[in-house]
Amino acid sequence: MIIAVTSQNRKSITGHAGKCRKFWLYEVDQQQVLGKQLLELPLAQSYHDE
Fold this sequence. Notes:
- By secondary structure, the protein is mostly beta strands.
- The protein has a domain at 1-29.
- Helix content is 0%, strand content 44%.
- It has no helices and three strands.
- A three-stranded antiparallel sheet has the order 1-2-3, with no helix packed on it.
C-alpha cells in the first residue's frame, strides 16, 4: 500500500492539501514502512495553482 502525506515544508503535515505541492509517499506492507520518497508537483499540477 502507498500512503501520501502532504508536507509543504517537508517536516510537518500540511492541513490544506489543495495548495500543497509536496507529498511524502510511504510504501507500507504488513504494518512496516518499506520506503519513503518525496513527490514534488509543478505549480500547474496543484489543485489550486495560484
